[in-house]
Amino acid sequence: MMTIGGAIGVGLFLGSSVTIRLAGPGVILSYLFSAVIAVIVAYSIAEMAVVHPVAGSFGVYAQTYLNEWSGFAVRATYVFVQIIAIGAEVTAVAIYCSMWFPAVPQWIWVAGVSAGLVAINAMQVGNFGEFEYWFAIVKVIAIVAFIALGLGLIFGLGPKAAIGFSNLTAHGGFLPHGMKGVWLAMTLTLTSYMGVEILGITAGEAKEPEKTIPRAMRTVSLRLILFYVLSMIVMLSMTPWDRMGSGITGSPFVLTFAAAGIPFAASIMNLVVITAALSSANTNLYLTTRTLFSLSRDGYVGEAFGRLGRNGVPYFALFASCGGMAAAILLAIFAPGRAFLLLYGIAVAGMFFVWMVILLAHLAFRRSLGHARVALLPIRLGFSPYLQIIALTGLAAISISTFYVEGLQYSVPSFMPFLLVITAFYWTLKRRNHNKPEDSSAHNFDLREGE
Question: Which end of the chain is more exposed for a tag (fewer CB within 10 A), N or C?
């Protein structure tokens, strides 16, 4: 449920307004093509998580099977990306709330939501898990209800005449912007699946990861694909794609129900997308905190980030993870109209880098284990190494494509200086002969021991 909670968020509920504008109904293909890459990454990390169920997750895998720099860089990048993503998600909540309270400044919503999320994450991890479980349940039920209700309207199961699927082809065709639009939309549809790597991180606090991780991965991958693809089919069948709006001013899901004329449905859906954004932000705050904890235990950042409170929560790492919320408050004050895409765009390139490192680490992991041990794994990615190479090539090509998407042109250029800075920081630590534990994996079990 944490994986679903992290993956199904503003990328689907708010970011889809941009992808629909880029590809029209062809965005359905964008989600399908993106799913292929996402599943390859998901199975790659699940294999490694079963063998190494540690809180540092792919950072530890990269450090173990590639080199120390990649282990540090991927964790530092993930912290940076998630901090920024948290800011984007609380900004999305403010955008949704403006539907009901247009006169209230966005920064007030951002500040209030941020305080609530910090309080939830300060709880003992079992209580946090309960909150996130119910957050995720709400959005899953809502998406299923949206799909069911939408299909009912499409096939005319209610009092109204059947809508049918004519809207998928009646307004410029299924591919109004050709395959180019489908490809450019993948710069954002792919990010809708970013969250599947959560399984690796939560393995550090999971019971019997050799059983729970494979089961979760198989079900989560299928559910995410079905939710995204069916949601897009229903939404674009109910409302013409060119009437979805021209900017990020609200969720297309809410606009669809408003256009359908169902009493109170738009307000109910707006409450659901608020819950979805809260769930995603809540999960990402958890992930950032645990990744900072891992970096501290490996000696890359101060010891304070690795200290646990009495209830097993690394409080200093938690408060340091709130930087994105502070940035969101400032942007909500000074640039409320552009805040979401500015924050979300910065996170895009960083996540592409994280996924590439995961795939490279998995290739090295497979070589290290050998065919005999790989055959014994409870979950395995088929057609290796060809699928990893396909996914790596796709990620590189999509990264380049961000230059041609309005609002994302600076995603890669803004990430490169960050990568140079953390690389310089890493080599400075090396030169100073920093006290780094020899066996990092042992420390990454400390979160479970603190329970």
Answer: C
Looking at 239-261, list the stretches that DSSP marks H as alpha helix, in order from N- to C-terminal side: 252-260
Q: Which helix (H) or strand (E) holds 433?
A: none
pTM of the model: 0.81
Rounded Cα distance between 443 and 425, Å, is 22
Task: Enter the tokens of residue 390.
Answer: 């396909």
Tens digits of pLDDT across the chain (451 residues): 666 655 666 556 666 777 888 999 999 999 999 989 988 998 898 889 888 877 667 888 999 999 999 988 998 888 888 888 788 788 888 888 887 888 888 889 888 888 888 888 787 666 667 777 777 787 788 788 888 888 888 888 867 788 889 999 988 999 999 999 999 999 988 887 877 777 766 666 667 777 777 777 777 777 778 888 888 898 889 888 887 755 555 567 777 766 666 667 777 777 877 887 887 788 788 878 887 887 788 777 778 888 887 777 888 888 888 887 887 777 777 766 665 666 666 778 888 999 999 999 999 999 998 888 888 888 888 898 999 999 999 999 999 999 998 878 888 888 888 899 999 988 888 777 555 454 444 444 344 444 4
The length of the chain is 451
Question: Distance from first CA to last CA of the chain, Å, rounded?
Answer: 20
Based on the number of CB atoms within 10 Å of its own CB, is 384 exposed (0-12), middle (13-18) or buried (19 or more)? Answer: middle
CA dist., res. 223 & res. 442, Å (int): 34
